Amino acid sequence: MSTEQKNILFDLIKSLSKSEKRQFKLFVGRLGANSDAKFIALFNVIDKMKKYDEQTILRKTDISKGQLPNVKSNLYRQLLVSLRLNPQHQTPQLQIREQIDFATILYNKGLYRQSLKILDKAKSTAMDLYELNMAFEIVEFEKAIESQYITRSMDSRADDLAVMAKDLSIQNVLASKLSNLSLQLYSFLLKNGYAKNEDDYIKTRNYFYYHLPTFEIEELDFREKLYLYMAQLWYNMIIQDFVSSYKYATKWVELFREERRMISANPVYYVKGYNYLLESLYYLRYYSKFKESYLELCEEVEHDKYINNANTKSMVFIYTRYNEINMHFLGATFEEGIKVIQRIEEELNDHTHQIDEHHIMVFYYKFACLHFGIDNYRESIQYLNKIINNPKLGMREDLLCYSRILRLICHFELGKEEIESIVKSTYRFLIKMNDLHRVQVEIIAFLKNLNNIYPSELKNAFKDLFDKLKKLEDHPYEKRSFLYLDILSWLESKIEGKPLHSIVQEKARALK
Description:
This protein is mainly α. The protein contains 26 helices and no strands. Among the domains are: 3-89, no CATH class; 92-153, no CATH class. α25 (487-496) packs across α26. It is globular and about 95 Å long.
């Protein structure tokens, strides 16, 4: 059995809150026969484990090795049934699905009118929440009942259902095309980051416009507009048009504000839209608007009741903490930023089973940049090594590339004798990743040539590198480097003989 299969049950149990564990024990204890059930013994043992250990399970229970797979499957199913009954997980979508299940039971008992009554109510709810896939499923179920049994429905019933099914099918096809487009662009953004060259730009532009379906914007419903704004946001993020990405992120958030009932139905989408609104403002260096929007988000998630499950709480944690750190970057308040690292790391431990490696590594890169901002180079390297040495980090090639470059600069600042070997390994990595650009070439060439520069000439060498990089700051593809690493401020600190944080603070005051 693979490690992943073994950890499925373990991860589920470790994700349970105290109230969920209590409810599960009440759920399985509703029948006296379950009191000594083997799956309960298995639950109790795994609940106390720090990591999955099959030998401990066999030793502490009377479950044989041959029985274990079946007992684990039974426990997994019982846990899911218990969670499904938990009011905390009763989302509008789950309630609609429950009504369909009830209607199916009534249908199987031959109680067709009762079944149709429940389906009609569920359909209204689904339509109200723009859950048109479920609405289509309900209409198809209604058609099956009407076509097989005499329900004394009105004469136009068959025509009404046929027209509704056709309309829903057309809408679902359009929504599917928009959601597919959004997903593909998001996947590209996660894996590759921003467009690196003209080929990336043309490829992205052609893909976007070729797959963008024909529509009239005023005829789109909530769900279709949401997928459209998401696709337009990802596209503009990839091509680094942050003014347009801010525009579509704002449309995304306003869509929910206009129909606030959709926030409780899709809270993750709402918070995610807010995050990309803030990210766009961050890249535009619009400090005052960023701070205003960040405080709005914090107030929203603190008081709103829709943040009611582990998934939503984890997303809220990620996006509020990312932007808390970004606000320190914009304000150049690195000392205050350093103080939040320990708190965030402790909070990360509470969300271990909900947050993937990609998001954790982004936190580490931000932590490394905060330490770099106040010359804590050793601490910065510790976080960068966690990213570079992570074998699971298959996404975000850009994160891997700039982690190596920042680590290289940290080693330079520490006066490491082995800097030449680090330069060579970084250069080889960038070539392998096909991510070698002018900014990176100039930085690596400078560091590689350090041994040939006399101390009295070092300041001029920094000026020369600054002049070369400054010309690339607004280049359509080279400017992406400056989004990950404020190399120009670092060079200015070397030229002027000032601490990096003081240079960034001067710029921050101008931004404010």
